[in-house]
């Protein structure tokens, strides 16, 4: 099941880092803005104080001359400065003696008003106050925030000793200079600073996010994507694919271990395929063996039951047939035989002989169940068989090639019966090579015992005949074949615990392979693994 696709790792990391940065930077930004605001406010207060100081100092000499017009003009000029809202001169009695706002001249100021409250708020008026204590922040009638700065004008010796003698010497404070300046510039600067800070912060966050995305993409996302692609390919059984290992960090280690895992999987898969192939071959071999055994079993049963019947019939036929043959032979040799009947009598003799051959074959077939086993040398038996039949006309144009294995072990067998088998097969081979050919006899010794291979280059056996050739009375030789040669041979070899196999190809030739168990170790005999096996049959 494919998991639901959520936010990518890069997005999550970037968002989390940005959120952390914003959370960490927010209090600093706030404190920063507050500090800037405070500094700007203090600067505005200092500016207001400077205005007041300047007015007090520059107007002092004109005050001593009681030149009020000049004093008021100077205050008015100072009030024209940028950011100055208005400046007023308040007498000790609370009367506004002069103001840049003409409407409030000669009006009284309430002692509880913000401008007075700073010094008069605590009951007894303050004689001295700090710069910050003398400033106040308030909202004017127009709704704008402004800063008021109050400066006391102290009575000095020059004041009460001046010719005008306007002030008494015991009077401590002569009046108050109150300047109100606008805080708009401070607010503008604070806003600008805040905007700049916010822009810078956003740009920094963007830069950090972009760098982080690039780094994570390069160092984490891309390698992980490659590993992911690799896992998909492995899932599709493409076990030859490998992840490129680009670093020695955790991702590199992961890629390496993935490659190792894939390699092991590939080896395991190859082993599994090899085992499957071997298993299939073994199953095929076993199936072939089983089929062969089944065929042998059926044939053995058939031969066993047939053998009993055949033994009885052959025995019963043999006596009358001998009588017919003897008497017909005597008749054929008699001088008193009517010459016109001679040919008929000779036919009786010939056919009787043929019947005798068949009965002889039948008796052989029946007798095959009781071999007289002794240790025999198969090479010697083969040589005597060849000597017996080699003179026959069918072998005149046949080359006989012998490839005997060295040190072939002896077998426990009935020499006469084995010779009979060899003769049957050799005669069949000779008959199959009517126009000449090559008869090869090879022997070998392997784990399955001793094998004798008789190969001819004759007419071959058609495929549909192959399952029948060991059946009694199956023959393609119309006049002279009984069809008992191979069935007798099969029975003999089976009684010896061996096997007989055939492979053939029409017009190419036939190979009969007789296998017999070795009689055991003896002088001059080799162990199976010491023998070099001869090449397998061609067909
Ligand atoms: N080497 C061979 N090449 C071709 N066909 C063969 C060969 N050996 C056997 N056959 C076939 O198998 C049949 C059966 O052989 P088998 O030896 O049992 O009987 P036969 O040779 O016909 O008669 P008999 O052996 O009694 O003279 C033969 O008729 C022949 O068709
Ligand atoms: Mg034969």
What would your notes on this structure say?
The structure is a single chain. Helices cover 53% and strands 15% of the residues. With 539 residues, the chain is α+β, with helices and mostly antiparallel strands. Among the domains are: 9-189, PAS domain (Beta-Lactamase); 370-539, Heat Shock Protein 90. A five-stranded antiparallel β-sheet has the order 2-1-5-4-3, sandwiched between helices. Strands 7-9-10-12-11 form a five-stranded mixed β-sheet, covered by helices on one side.
Specify the overall morphology. rod-shaped
CATH architecture annotation name of one domain: 2-Layer Sandwich
CATH first level of one domain:
Alpha Beta
The assigned structural class equals: alpha+beta
Please indicate the percent range of residues in DSSP E strands (runs of 2 or more): 15-25%
Helix content: 40-55%
How would a textbook summarize the main sheet?
5 strands, antiparallel
Q: Quote the average pLDDT.
A: 84
Strand tally is: 12
Strand order of the largest sheet: 2-1-5-4-3
Task: Set down the secondary structure blueprint.
Layout: H1 9-64, H2 68-78, E1 84-91, E2 96-99, H3 114-120, E3 135-139, E4 145-154, H4 157-160, E5 173-182, H5 184-235, H6 250-333, H7 339-367, E6 374-376, H8 378-389, E7 398-403, E8 411-413, H9 415-432, E9 437-446, E10 449-456, H10 485-495, E11 499-505, E12 509-516
Parallel strand pairs: 7-9
Antiparallel strand pairs: 1-2, 1-5, 3-4, 4-5, 6-8, 9-10, 10-12, 11-12
Helix pairs in contact: 1-2, 1-5, 5-6, 6-7, 7-10, 8-9, 9-10
The chain binds adenosine-5'-triphosphate and magnesium ion (MG).
């Amino acid at each position: 099941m494919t998991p639901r696709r959520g936010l990518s790792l890069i997005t999550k990391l970037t968002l989390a880092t940005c959120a952390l940065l914003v959370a960490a930077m927010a209090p600093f930004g706030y404190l920063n803005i507050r500090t800037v605001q405070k500094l700007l406010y203090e600067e505005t207060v200092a500016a207001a104080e400077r205005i007041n100081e300047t007015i007090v100092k520059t107007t002092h000499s004109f005050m001593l001359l009681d030149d009020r017009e000049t004093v008021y003009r100077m205050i008015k000029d100072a009030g024209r400065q940028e950011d100055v809202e208005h400046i007023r001169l308040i007498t000790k009695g609370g009367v506004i003696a002069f103001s840049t706002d003409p409407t409030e001249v000669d009006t009284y100021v309430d002692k509880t008003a913000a401008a007075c409250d700073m010094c008069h708020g605590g009951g007894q008026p303050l004689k001295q106050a700090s710069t910050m204590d003398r400033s106040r922040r308030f909202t004017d009638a127009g709704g704008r925030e402004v800063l008021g700065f109050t400066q006391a004008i102290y009575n000095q010796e020059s004041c009460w000793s001046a010719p005008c003698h306007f002030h008494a010497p015991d009077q401590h404070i002569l009046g108050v200079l109150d300047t109100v300046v606008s805080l708009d510039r401070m607010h503008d600067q604070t806003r600008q600073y805040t905007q700049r800070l916010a822009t810078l912060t956003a740009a920094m966050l963007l830069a950090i996010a972009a760098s982080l995305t690039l780094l994570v993409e390069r160092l984490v996302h891309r390698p992980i994507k490659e590993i992911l692609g690799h896992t998909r390919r492995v899932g599709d059984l493409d076990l030859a694919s490998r992840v490129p290992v680009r670093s020695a960090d955790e991702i590199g280690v992961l890629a390496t271990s993935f490659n190792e895992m894939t390699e092991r999987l590939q080896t395991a898969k190859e082993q599994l395929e090899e085992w499957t192939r071997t298993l299939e071959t073994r199953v095929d071999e076993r199936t072939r063996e089983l089929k062969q055994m089944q065929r042998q079993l059926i044939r053995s049963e058939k031969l066993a039951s047939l053998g009993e019947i055949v033994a009885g019939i052959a025995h019963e036929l043999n006596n009358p047939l001998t009588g017919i043959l003897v008497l017909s032979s005597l008749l054929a040799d008699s001088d008193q035989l009517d010459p016109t009947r001679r040919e008929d009598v000779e036919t009786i003799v010939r056919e009787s002989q043929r019947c005798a051959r068949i009965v002889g074959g039948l008796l052989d077939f029946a007798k095959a169940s009781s071999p007289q086993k002794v240790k025999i040398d198969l090479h010697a038996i083969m040589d005597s068989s060849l000597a017996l039949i080699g003179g026959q006309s069918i072998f005149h144009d046949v080359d006989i090639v012998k490839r005997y294995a060295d040190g072939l072990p002896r077998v426990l067998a009935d020499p006469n019966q084995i010779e009979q088998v060899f003769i049957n097969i050799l005669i069949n081979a000779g008959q199959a090579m009517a126009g000449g050919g090559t008869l090869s006899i090879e022997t070998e010794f392997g784990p399955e015992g001793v094998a004798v291979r008789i190969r001819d280059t004759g007419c071959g056996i058609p495929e549909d005949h192959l399952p029948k050739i060991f059946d009694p009375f199956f023959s393609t030789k119309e006049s002279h074949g009984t069809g008992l040669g191979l069935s007798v041979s099969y029975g003999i070899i089976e009684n010896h615990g061996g096997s007989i196999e055939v492979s053939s190809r029409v017009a190419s030739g036939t190979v009969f392979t007789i296998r017999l168990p070795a009689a055991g170790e003896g002088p001059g005999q080799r162990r199976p693994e010491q023998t070099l096996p001869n090449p397998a049959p061609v067909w």
